[in-house]
Amino acid sequence: MLSIGDPAPDVTAPNQHGESVSPAFDVPTVVYFYPKDFTGGCTIEANEFEDALPEYRDAGIEVYGVSMDDVDSHAGFAEEEGLSFDLLADPDGDVARAFGLDVEEGYSDRLTFVLAGGVVVATYDPELADPSGHAREVLGDTRTEFVADD
């Protein structure tokens, strides 16, 4: 798994609209990996990131959700849950592997990375606790630690 200080990986994946997305990771960016669309904890986590999205955007922080589900699954999940941030489809596990995650079981663990200035600046393992509240924790830490005040 990538650690704090490691360079950001060069990744490209389609979002829920089938558009190719290549995050630059130059501005503060949250990439959260989750096991599967339409499951309990993953739905809670996605909805909480969506609820906090205006605050993320106001702070200049980008948010991406990533799972090994395909574009069609992400499209249905985003529509059903009203998600407006990019869900990156990673059915072959290439994005997850670029972050050093294990995909042997056909899904990645629930892990979150914060990147800024082209490097990993924080990691979170919400698998250790209930995903409820995770999006707010990441927002608070990222806004405090990695967003420059103008």
Number of strands: 7
What level of helicity do the residues show? Answer: 25-40%
Distance between the termini: 33 Å
Low-confidence stretches: none
Determine the strand fraction and express it as a percent band: 15-25%
- Name of the top-level CATH class: Alpha Beta
Average pLDDT level: 93
Compressed to H and E, one letter per element, the order equals EEEHEHEHEEH
CATH architecture: 3-Layer(aba) Sandwich
Domain Thioredoxin: 2-150
Organism: Halobaculum lipolyticum
GO molecular function, one term: thioredoxin-dependent peroxiredoxin activity
Catalytic activity: a hydroperoxide + [thioredoxin]-dithiol = an alcohol + [thioredoxin]-disulfide + H2O
Overview of this protein structure:
There is one protein chain. This protein has 150 residues and is α/β, with parallel strands linked by helices. The protein has one domain (13-143): Glutaredoxin, CATH 3.40.30. The protein has 4 helices and 7 strands, in the order βββαβαβαββα. The chain has helices at residues 40-58, 71-81, 94-98, 134-146, and strands spanning 13-14, 20-21, 29-33, 62-67, 86-89, 111-116, 119-124. It is globular. The protein starts with 12 loop residues before the first strand and ends with a helix. The relative contact order is 0.25. The mean pLDDT is 93. InterPro entries: AhpC/TSA (IPR000866), Peroxiredoxin_BCP/PrxQ (IPR050924), Thioredoxin-like_sf (IPR036249), Thioredoxin_domain (IPR013766). GO terms for molecular function: thioredoxin-dependent peroxiredoxin activity.
